[in-house]
Amino acid sequence: xxxxxxxxxxxRSGAVTPETGRYVKRLSELRGLYQDDESLQRALAGGDDPxxxxxxxxxxxxxxxxxxxxxxxxxxxxxxxYLTRGHFHRRPECGEAYYTQSGEGVLLLDxxxxxxxxxEMRPGVCAFIPPEWAHRSINTGRExxxxxxxxxxxxxxxxxxxxxRGMRKLVLERDGARTIIDNPSYAS
Length: 188
Ligand code: F6R
Ligand code: ZN
What we know:
Elements: E1 8-9, E2 16-17, E3 21-26, H1 37-45, E4 51-58, E5 65-72, E6 76-77, E7 80-81, E8 96-102, E9 105-111, E10 116-121, E11 126-129, E12 133-139, E13 145-152, H2 160-165, E14 169-174, E15 177-182
Antiparallel strand pairs: 1-2, 3-4, 4-5, 5-13, 6-7, 8-11, 8-13, 9-10, 9-12, 14-15
């Protein structure tokens, strides 16, 4: 039987104590997701491969719920802000919550029935992600964006669809300001 415990979450660093696992995504692993592939190649050409985000988990396979943090670094590829891959949950009935701890960003959501939505990510806002909505987070600030996520342990991730079609919106910096546009290369 599992035993209860308090898990400390540092809202600045995203540290989860105790944690059960973590992974890092570097820019080279996000090829094909940014609109400006030349800028991405140029960013990698110097030999640097920056960390774009890190995920730290508290996941007990015997439990139905799990949670963790995502720590997104600030940065851009061309004029497009750093983003996560974006996914649907494999189990269609599974939603999620993202509770922002520090930094600022946006959560882009695309539904299976053709809608899109944007939720601001700022400290104190808990974003509700309903089932059947793909979600991608984007750091639009100058500091790390740190949020806590909660979902079903076996929700699963389907990256293929967003990887192939993209999302309906892009988040860019234009004239120094955050701008959300329709994705011109969205494959509907
Ligand atoms: C879990 C979830 C988050 C993301 C994380 C990285 O369902 O939504 O933990 O997995 O923010 O984003 P992706 O997985 O899209 O690269
Ligand atoms: Zn998710």
